[in-house]
Structures are given as C-alpha cells and as structure tokens.
Amino acid sequence: MSDLRIAVLGLGMMGAFHVELLTSAIKGATVTVVNDFVADKAEAVAARIGARVVADPIAAINDPEVDAVLLATPGSTHFEQVSACLDAGKPVLCEKPLTTDVATSYALVEAEAALGRPLVQVGFMRRYDTEYVALKELIVGGGLGRVLQLHCTHRNPAVPDHFNSEFMIRDSVVHEVDVTRFLLDSEITSVQVLAGAATEAAPEGTHDPMLVVFETAAGQLVTDEIFVRSGVAYEVRTEAVGERGSALIGLDQHLTLKSTDGRWGGLITPGFVERFGAAYRVELQRWVDAAGRGTIDGPGVWDGYAAVAVCEAGVEAVRSGQRVPVRLGERPAPAAHGVTR
C-alpha cells in the first residue's frame, strides 16, 4: 500500500516536532503539504523534507495530494479547520484544544455524528504513555479495587508571562482533565479551584500554584496541583487510590504500586520530549495506521468537547472562587462518535 499523504498545518514547536517524527520515525506516512502563517518557516520545512507549501490552510486540507491532516495551529483556528476536514471526509489529528469554546466544540460533535464515522482525533498523548497505559490496565483489571481518588501533580520549571491563571487551566490542567476521564471512565461533573499563596515568579494577579478539584459522575474526587513556575523541573505524577491499594506513576519515571500485603515495586520507564516522546511516537503511528483505513484510533471529538467544557468550568471557578458544575450536551450514540478508551 502507498503511504498516507499528510498535510501538517502549523509549524511551531509542536508542528515541527510532529513533522520530524512523521518523516523519521513513523511507518507508512509521507508529509506532502505544509502550512504556516510564517511563509519563510513553511518554505524551509518544505525544502528539507521534500513537501509543498500551500499558503491557505483550507486549500491545504482540500489538496488532492492530502489524505489526512495534522493540526498544530492556534486553537482559535481549529473550528474552521476541523470543519473543513469533516467536509472533505479526511481524518484529522487535532492538537488540543479541539476549539476555544464549548459551542463550537459541540458543533463539531454534531457534525461528525452526522457523517456516521469518526474522523476527528484529539492529541491527548498521555493515553499512549506506557505508565498511563499500565495504570489504566491495573484499574480496569481490578488491581486497586474500586478507585476512590486521583491525586495529580503538574509542574513546569518556567513558562512565559502569558501563562496566567486561566491559561494554566486551558493549556496545562486540560491534560489532567483527559487523564481523569481516561483512567476513571467517568465524566467530570464539577470543578473547584483553590488559589493560595503565589510564587514570587508569577505575574501580578496570577495564581501559581493552584489546587484544582474535580468530582466525577461516580463520586470520585480528583486533586490536581498545577505549578508552572516551580523553578525545578518538568514533573508529572498521578496517584490512584483504591479500596485495595494505590499506584503512583511519574515518580522518577516509575510506576510504583503499594498493596495491602505491604509490598511495593514497579517498572522503570523513561522525563516534556524525554518524558512523553515515546508516547507521541505511538500516538502518531496508531493515528497513521487508522487514518489509512479512514478512521481514528484514540481520543475522539467527544473527548475534545468534554475537555473544553471542563476547562470552561475551571476558568469560571478561577474567576468566582466557587465550585462550578460542568454542563455537557447530549452525547451521540457510540457508533457515531467512535471514542476509543
């Protein structure tokens, strides 16, 4: 079979990273078209990999030499671009967020459902990380009994000043939103944000760190410490606490399991590109394989919509200081949205 011909839109840090993986590490894929609003950047990337530049993003999506699309463009462009992919019947891997507001995200849910087949995959790469996969399997297999709580930690050493409290919810906490839904297989029903003392490194008016609390439809509580100016390192940890034990991932890249008989142990795994580079490779390979069949293999349009809805509630919680309910629309039938868990 011939390679899947891919258009990559957006050639910033993530887009360039995806181009590199697609051209050097992913089987069955060829980047044929690239697009970026910085013309010189697009020309340089195209020349290096033997692709063509198409200056208009919608034209790039509709190009006859494109079978599938990877979007690493700003979130404000996603609604129009994902809609164009659906109109063209082309599978699309969209980096988060699906869109920048609840209404347009849900419109994409409805549009895909009307097509009757899943075409939209959202780039929540942690679902492909070996530690998260192992923790998911442990939970599904009953190794912890019924899971009662998750405790998450998300720390960056430093970020630009535009990472204010609301941006921290939308850009960083969004990963823990998807992790919660993935691990617990339950929708998040409310969000509360506790903002205490802020680091001196935070701009005026920015709460950093914050403690975000989710409640799920099954009554589980989830805490997420988000601290993006820790000055130390990139640290991502998740602990699941169940009725028959607990399991922790992300501590020195271990999955550490503690059980009721007093035993503990785990497997050493590989720390942003170092920590999740392997997960990105698995994500892209599985997407390419599925897109070649005209479908997706991973978190779908409903997952993207649910994450946007939870983050909007989180932003409201930052502003109000109150516990805010998450409002989700009616979910289409599984055959229509094609979510993989």
Summarize the structure.
Residues 136-326 form the Gfo/Idh/MocA-like oxidoreductase C-terminal domain. It is built from ten helices and 15 strands.
Task: Describe the protein in words.
- The chain is α/β, with parallel strands linked by helices.
- It folds into 2 domains: about 140 residues, 3-Layer(aba) Sandwich (Rossmann fold); about 160 residues, Dihydrodipicolinate Reductase, domain 2.
- The protein contains 10 helices and 15 strands.
- The strands form 2 sheets. The chain has a 9-stranded mixed beta sheet with strand order 14-13-12-11-7-10-9-8-15, with helices on one face. Strands 3-2-1-4-5-6 form a 6-stranded parallel beta sheet, sandwiched between helices.
- β11 and β12 form a beta hairpin.
- α4 packs parallel to α5.
- The longest helix has 20 residues.
- The protein is globular.
- The two termini are about 30 Å apart.
- The C terminus is likely disordered.
Keywords:
341 residues, alpha/beta, Rossmann fold, Dihydrodipicolinate Reductase, domain 2, 2 domains, nine-stranded mixed beta sheet, six-stranded parallel beta sheet, 10 helices, 24% strand, globular, Gfo/Idh/MocA-like_OxRdtase_C
